Amino acid sequence: MNPGIGMPEIAVLLLLALIVVGPAELPKMMRTIGRFVNQARSMAKDFQRSFDEMGRESELADLRKEIENLKSANPVGEISEELRKAKEDLRHAEAVGSKEKAVKPAAKPVADLVPDDGNTIAPPREKPKPAQPIKTGAPEDE
Predict the structure, then answer these.
(1) Assigned domain for 24 exists
(2) Is-contact 29 17, C-beta < 8 A?
(3) How far apart, in whole angstroms, are the C-alpha atoms of residue 38 and residue 90?
(4) Is 126 helix (H, G, I), strand (E, B) or coil?
(5) How many CA atoms lie within 13 A of 2 on its CB side?
(6) Domain that holds residue 52
(7) pTM of the model
(8) Which residues of 57-86 are buried (b: 16+ CB within 10 A; e: fewer)?
(9) Is 17 exposed, middle or buried (0-12, 13-18, 19+ CB in 10 A)?
(10) Residue pLDDT, tens place only, 47-93
(11) Could you tell me if residue 100 is inside a domain?
């Protein structure tokens, strides 16, 4: 029960209610008090539910915003947009090139395009020259 109200206090309140109201009206009064308490509890539950619902709606709105931010920061979308633009530029250049029949620039050799990092196949090189003996400066015995 409520703090500060024990069995002796409740007994005193019931005795006073019995004296003031009378034994015939006491059950009606207790029923009325019970209905009032029940209505107060249901109103409190409705109030709590409305606050919980508002909290859930605000959380959902925050989640929606976060999802939209993640979608807008998607690198796949950016890459696909860049590829689409490049494809359109290529089609445009091909259309203009076929009309003008422009001269294509000379292609660079493959060796210039691919760096030699040890993982690629290098073009053949000249045979190394044979090693020359090193002269030390001391006279040699013949």
Answers:
(1) yes
(2) yes
(3) 76
(4) coil
(5) 4
(6) 10-72
(7) 0.38
(8) eeeeeeeeeeeeeeeeeeeeeeeeeeeeee
(9) middle
(10) 999 989 998 998 999 999 988 888 777 777 778 888 999 999 988 88
(11) no
